[in-house]
Amino acid sequence: MLRVVPPADIAVARATVGEALETKTLNKPEVYAAPAALIRDIGEQVRNYGAIKAVPAAATPNVRNDMYLASDAVRLMGANPAGFDSADTAKLKSLRSSLDSGTRFIPIWVKVSVALALGLGTMVGWKRIVVTVGEKIGKTHLTYGQGASAEIVAMATIGLADAYGLPVSTTHVLSSGVAGTMLANGSGLQWATLKNMALAWVLTLPAAMAISGTLYVIFRQIL
Known about the structure:
Elements: H1 10-23, H2 29-49, H3 60-76, H4 86-103, H5 108-136, H6 144-164, H7 170-185, H8 191-222
Helix pairs in contact: 1-2, 1-3, 2-3, 3-4, 6-7
């Protein structure tokens, strides 16, 4: 069993973990000590308040950030970190699961709201989506072979992105796959459509940020 002495200063521990995550060099005794300090501090705060949900709003960001740092540190240490026996490894796995259960979750009401929004949006705009993807990206209509190729690429890309924690858009990936099949088929692309799609992709992020920020301010005043 590996023995480490956590640093007394939590700020030093936080900085050490952050630097180790950036450089991906965690398999060192001095680095092992920093997550131990973070976890100890998280445990003390939770014990003081009784539960994570009871942590005051002002202190919540630091607690959650420390939980994220500790969880990522355990993840990057790998399945069999140097100096740890099987019992220690099992404890690390259990620790990471506990940390993730308190941070990486989606409330039921959020899942329901997103499902309803996506369902209603698709019901209203499905025809434009189908026509654009199937007929307006390339100069010819999408064939079965092209559709299958684009879907396979989208499935593989989204699966890999999920495995590595990369943010990707299903629509972007699928539309790009369709464009690739059109180029490979020699039918050519409708650049006006692609420019409009690219412009919509660029504007979506700031527009969504502005709208959601405005709604949050309004709801905060009301609720």
